[in-house]
Amino acid sequence: MSEEHYLELCDSPVQFENASSVNNVFFDEANKQVFAVRSGGATGVVVKGPDDKNSIAFRMEDKGEVKCIKFSYENKILAVQRSPKSVDFINFMPDLPHSEFSQECKTKNATVLGFCWTSWNEIVFITDQGVEFYQVLPDKRSLKLLKSHSINVNWYVYCPETSVILLSTTVQGNVLQPFAFKCGTMSKMSKFEIELPVVTKPAKIILSERDIAVATIYGQLYVMYLKHHSRTGNNPGAEVVLYHLQREGACKRSHILKLNTTGKFALNVVDNLVIVHHQSSQTSFMFDIKMKDTDSNLNIHQPVLPARSIHPYKIALTGTVSVSITVLALYSSTWSVFQPDIIISASEGYLWYLQVKLKPVVSLLQDKSKLMEFLLRRRDCKMVILSVCSQMLSRGDKGSLPVVAIVFDKLNQVYKEYLEAEQSYTMAVECGPSRGSTAHKRPVRTQAVIDQSDMYTHVLSLFTERKDVSHKFIIAVLMEYIRSLNQFQITVQHYLYELVIKTLVQHNLLYMLHQFLQYHVLSDSKPLACLLLSLESTYPPAHQLSLDMLKRLSTANDEIVEVLLSKQQVLGALRFIRSVGGHDNISARKFLDAARQTKDQMLFYTIFRFFEQRNQRLRGSPNFTPGEHCEEHVAYFKQAFGEQAFIKPVTL
């Protein structure tokens, strides 16, 4: 059996000029853009990003080696660092001149370590002596200092998704000071200390930026620290320590991911999964921090799945005569990994997004309960989940029912949470905005919401048609799904009940059908009552069961009348409608039509007489009005019983 790869590089990478043909390659994490810079006379720059239909190419005056280059959001302003003291700017907006302007850092004797755009016109300089937050005024070709903070800085890490910068301070570099930026404001967050490995003196460990990454996992911001240990009998190897970084309050160590090996590692986050690449073994580990192994306050995690390499990636090389296909060397030392899910090979000239393939996970994670938990948290999970359900049921093993029940409960828990959120949103919108309340956001229906229609279409309706599975198991599965829906107080759709009834009838389990209806295992509904009526020829008691159901519904009086009239039970229909007090509003013509069709003259006489008496009581005259369209029946009554049979109007 070939190795199953659950990680792959995207099919459509961003291609750029490789490192052998340019002087420098830079990556901008905020815009996901690669800058290929070539010097000589003028500086030529080619910019490519995943969302750019066409690459951006331009030339700049050569004013020295480019140390850093980034566009602001929407490619409006370009910032270029060439010197340790200043950053140069070029407008790329159509109505403004493209000439350069420059900004020196305000702090004397400071060295600019780098810069980060936080919006289209706001930028942060990080120096070895602190941070300087500026607003860029492109029309005035100048910058305005908004705020600054002095602190000794070794290095920094930026998370563009949340606009949070981490500054490394102190001699060992392990005290981190975060700053958050939003709409022209700079907020100092609580600083925290990274716990370094214990080493024997005089050795000292200095925290490197290579071992720190910042990413959002399940909507929360985490600082990920690659903690290296020497592998000994007491220590199995390196681990990734996650610190939960909160806007307010202390940053706390919250998760430990055990790697059980040593060497060079790199981190990505894909679909809320922490992926740890191990260079020497050329494999990757996958962690899901929501899958808990212990009940301790500090969650210690082992990899969710066995380590696997990224799926081999083939590239086409165009020669002078033909095109050849070659397999790219994975886990190369020339690879650069960026958050959350980007891998760049400067030597090959490729930028990829790392992706998780869910299908291989199904065979690697045997525990169906854990598998379902894992899949429900993934982005593109629906069809894989439905496939797992189909495979699980195909075994036809009654002993697997407890597992089936657990899976159904996990699916319906997510389904119920979505329904409740949708209901809360609807109620909030109907009530209108209240003072001080924020705008209500409609809940997003993710692929993890597997509703009854999904289960019916892709799993249950197909499952009931299988000939290689016991019909008892089929019915048990259907009832288990209905039980789960009821447990979560989700209204069962009538087509599921219909599926149960049809399956019972198909296998001649009519006694079971009768019991299900008698003990209200199948909830009353008009569509279900109509289905029962259609089964009368196969199962005669179904007619009475249907009527009983319609009566219990109390909102189905019209349907009951129609059913009785269709069975030529005209007097029965009339008695029923009188019993519920609706006889003053019923259509005389409908009942007279039904009575004529029975070819029973005395029945017709009785019904006609009833409506004459109703007319007399309601209108003071036994005659029918033109709007009732009963002329045909009046003529027939006269022909059959004579003029003298009509009730005479009472004259005063």
From TrEMBL:
All copies of the Regulator of MON1-CCZ1 complex N-terminal domain together span 25-143
Q: Note the InterPro entries from the entry.
A: RMC1, RMC1_C, RMC1_N
Note the superkingdom of the native organism.
Eukaryota
Q: Which GO terms describe its biological process?
A: regulation of autophagy
Provide the Mic1 domain boundaries: 378-626
- Identify the GO cellular component terms for this protein: late endosome membrane; lysosomal membrane; Mon1-Ccz1 complex
Report the PANTHER family cross-referenced here: COLON CANCER-ASSOCIATED PROTEIN MIC1 (PTHR12897), REGULATOR OF MON1-CCZ1 COMPLEX (PTHR12897:SF4)
**Annotated protein name in UniProt:** Regulator of MON1-CCZ1
**Organism (species):** Scleropages formosus (Asian bonytongue)
Q: Which gene encodes it?
A: RMC1
